[in-house]
Amino acid sequence: MKLRHFIILLLFSNWFTACEGQGEFGNNRLGLQKTISMPSVKGRIDHMDVNLRAGLVYMAALGNNSLEVIDVTNGKVIHSIKGLDEPQGVAYIPQHNEIFIANGGNGRCDFYNGTSFEKVASIQLSSDADDVRYDSANNKIYVGYGNGGIAIIDANAHKQVGDIKLPGHPEGFQLDVRINRLFANVPDANVIAVIDLNKRALIDQWKNNGNANFPMAIDTVNHTLFIGYRHPAKVVVLDARDGMILGSSAAVEDMDDLYFNADSKEIFVSGGGGYINVFKQDLKNLRQVSNILTRNGARTSLLIPQPKLFILAVRGRSGKDAELLVYKINP
After folding, report:
1. 3-class SS of residue 325
2. Is the pTM of this model over 0.90?
3. How many CA atoms lie within 13 A of 109 on its CB side?
4. Could you tell me which of 64, 161, 198, 311 has the fewest CB atoms within 10 Å of its CB?
5. Which of the listed CATH numbers 2.130.10.10, 3.30.43.10, 3.40.50.300, 1.10.150.20 matches domain 41-165?
């Protein structure tokens, strides 16, 4: 009996060490360049996007009902668009120098001028406007919203031109215009939805290999999807052509953002568990090369392949101001 208890304790201890107690390693992959304080930002922080030419990051401060405009080069907040309603998704439209903001509270999607920050146009969706993707080649904006839909918006005309029905609210989603597909995580239905962009219709649903599939990244050259699950916390690699599982790896708890860096063939993951994970894609397997300590709850991030930056948003807590951590991706 004592031997049995010892074995069970040993197995549990090994599991705990592997999943929860993993120490830091590979810290040299990211070098912290600067910390940008945001004392006026309160509450939860959601998605971000970048204006490369101006060196600006746009951050949806959901709990603050604002969009923060941050000058990354000079390390300061230069403007705040206030009066929003739980902003979640954001995209910068360089062709028109406009900022697109999706509001989760009232479902409204707003266009703002990128210089004057004045509102240009609005589009009303039914509810819970969330994640956003911009197809620059076709000037189309895709917005996940409501109880199960992705709205298609013409960025030139500021009008909704299509709608795709889904079996539940979409979280992270990605486009592969080379094969005319859109892939969406639908955790409420426990599936990955496959959409034909030409037909603008759901054509397949791949059952999940876990629960709470939120972030997603894509390699459009090799047609590979990277799906982030929270229960259990892991990254799963799928063939985007048929949904076949190619590999997986344990990952940080409460992950919210996941990126594929085509230049280095690496996957960057940020999670509320307080770490940044970096995985190397060896053929079709994942090998973790970094586990970098951050702060509990810091789960929202942005990868900027050029000039090789990784941005992490840190929510203000326990008397500490909200911050934007700017990391340089080292060779």
Report:
1. strand
2. yes
3. 31
4. 198
5. 2.130.10.10
